[in-house]
Amino acid sequence: MSAKSAINKEVFTPHDEKMLVAVQVKRRTKKKIPFLATGGQGDYMTFICLSVTNKKPSHVSITKVKQFQGSLSFSKRSMWTIDQLRQVNGCDPNRDCPEFDLAFDNAFDQWVAGSAGEKCTFIQILYHTCQRYSSQSKPEFVNCQPKLLGGNSILHSAADSVTSAVQKASQALNERGERLGRAEEKTGEMKNSAEQFAVTAHKLAMKHKC
Predict the structure, then answer these.
(1) Cβ(18)–Cβ(129) below 8 Å
(2) Using CB atoms within 10 A as the burial measure, which of 10, 89, 111, 192 is most buried?
(3) 3-state secondary structure the chain
(4) Distance (Å, rounded) from C-alpha 92 to C-alpha 101?
(5) In the predicted model, what is the mean pLDDT of residues 45-74?
(6) At 78, is the pLDDT very low, low, confident or very high (cuts 50, 70, 90)?
(7) How far separated are the first and last CA of the chain, in Å rounded?
């Protein structure tokens, strides 16, 4: 099981949430944190996760999850609602890069993702989730590539593909139904013509007998 699958199963599923996306990150600038604040647990991996509740009305959260060295478990460290997110800075609108910043009401972090691809996927899904779920003013997305903020998100592309396939199948069935209908109509017309021809032939035969 991958780390992200394990996070979803261990951290979010028990609280009736589903994780939409997660990105593994490191700080670009290290904060000075007292030794006791980290519990003295040494190195760790950090993930920024986006999740939504299964129950309606839906609530979306951005959660910082950590896994400390030597531990198999994951733990929540900080959490914000999507309405507390004020700005997402992609750091470079002209090229793929792993850096991005998140600014909340009471926090500001500068991150570097494990790869530019991971960062791009995270920002794209975060953007479309904000458009859908933010109940207040939506956060500002700055220095982000246009491809991340336009069109459908990766979350919706699969659904769109399924919808398109269903529509095509429905159209094909409708066309098939129309063709069958026209065939039945032509068959009926041929049957009527045959019956009329038989009646006419019978009348002619009777006339000649007379």
Answers:
(1) no
(2) 111
(3) CCHHHHHHHHHHHHHCEEEEEEEEEEECCCCCCCHHHHCCCCCEEEEEEEEEECCCCCCEEEEEEEEECCCCCCEEEEEEEHHHEEEEECCCCCCCCCEEEEEECCCEEEEEECCHHHHHHHHHHHHHHHHHHCCCCCCEEECCCHHHHCCCCHHHHHHHHHHHHHHHHHHHHHHHHHHHHHHHHHHHHHHHHHHHHHHHHHHHHHHHHC
(4) 11
(5) 94
(6) very high
(7) 95
Contact 123, 100 (CB under 8 A): yes
Q: What's the pTM value of the predicted model, to 2 decimals? A: 0.68
Q: pLDDT tens digits, residue range 1-34?
A: 789 999 999 999 999 999 999 999 999 987 655 5
